[in-house]
Amino acid sequence: MGAAEGCGSSRRIALLLEYDGTAYRGSQYQQNGPSIQAVLEAAINNLTRETARVAFAGRTDAGVHALGQVAAFDTNSTLGVREVVRGLNHFLPADVVVVSGRSAETRFDPRREAKQRAYRYRISNRSQRLALDRDRAWQVAKPLAVEAMAEAAAMLEGKHDFAAFSPPTDKLTARTLRRCEVSGQTGVEVTVEMEAEAFLPHQVRRTVGPLVEVGVGRMTVDELRRILEAAVPSSAQPAAPTHGLYLVRVEYDGFAFEPEEREEGE
Amino acid sequence: MGAAEGCGSSRRIALLLEYDGTAYRGSQYQQNGPSIQAVLEAAINNLTRETARVAFAGRTDAGVHALGQVAAFDTNSTLGVREVVRGLNHFLPADVVVVSGRSAETRFDPRREAKQRAYRYRISNRSQRLALDRDRAWQVAKPLAVEAMAEAAAMLEGKHDFAAFSPPTDKLTARTLRRCEVSGQTGVEVTVEMEAEAFLPHQVRRTVGPLVEVGVGRMTVDELRRILEAAVPSSAQPAAPTHGLYLVRVEYDGFAFEPEEREEGE
To answer: What span, in angstroms and rounded, lies between the C-alpha atoms of A85 and A70?
Structure first.
């Protein structure tokens, strides 16, 4: 993270962010379109007149939403955390909000120190397209066999080489999937919840896509197991679309956001 | 309802509609802005080349959403119901969708024959504004006493003169509120569900507003009871904003939409 300008004593502030990713090219700064980083850095500049660089706990792709993204930045501002939260929310667009804020150690790195990340994927299981949730869930028309999906999800839990669920990479692709759970009701809504210390790029969407293949009967649990075991990069297909995915929560050792402070009056 | 043009044998089709009311001035045709009626009649015209007049089960105000609005129109088209649904969804904008359709008696009147209407009102009980649900729920910052709200809601159930919960009108204001239930969790989300054969104009929002007054401690259940009993028009204040309100379901005697027909393939 870049240091804030100026010669005052710099401090680091951590933010809990919620956003609707529909209008953004993703969390990180993009040359060719709006990003969460750009609007957040602009809001910080509007509030503090400083040029800050924001770091995020997790990279989210274009269209992916966040209920609990964590961000951090440095500032020389003497504003209290509550004033920072209120001020940023004044300058941020309607589809991005700081839910909570707190002071952090100046070494706090929201990405490296994250001990657990939780994602949710929402599937609306119905014939017709979605009006209210059109940017909030993946509409799947064929009836989903929820139990078969849950069996496949349970098979994926634990420590595996998840190369099949990632684009090709030079890095290690072993991860421990602490939770992969399917819940919901055929013909209504089906939700996939996944938790791990760290995920491979696109891992959640490249898991949900094959789980839906199992749900509609185009793939068996055994076939998915063989794809996992063969560990051929990108072989778990298709990737589910971005707009059903939510970064729900990021957890740290000994660092949490306070339960919301309440304002007096609405 | 106007008869369809042409000299073929006219028939009536009933539609189950979902819409995001954010971009609309309401369900009914408005001179000065988009309406659900206008986009639906335009879609029917695009599909059938007929000028149809659509009738709705319930009038929804600007910004109010529907999960289960019922509409009906007449047509000479020989298209099957499934083709009508598919064709209308092709021509309708992304924020309006026909979830299901069926043939109806040519005398079927979706408004007059409705035996029960169900509304839901979503309240997000947190300090900061909403990014994902900014057009989908009412954000209330002060902690809501859910039990007090539930007690007030129960007090409103049954047959009463609901004049206080309606603008001034020459018509009768007695209604039977079959269900008025508050559920949810303080600091998270609170939902109000209301069911009646018929509601007064704005009755749901003029009920939810005072229930929130009870929830934040600005009104007691007894004070709300006295407002109900005094029956002074418009005295139940404030009205909750439109964007948290959903028309969930309309029920008829001996008339229902089939469980969705499934397409083969997604």
So the answer is: 13
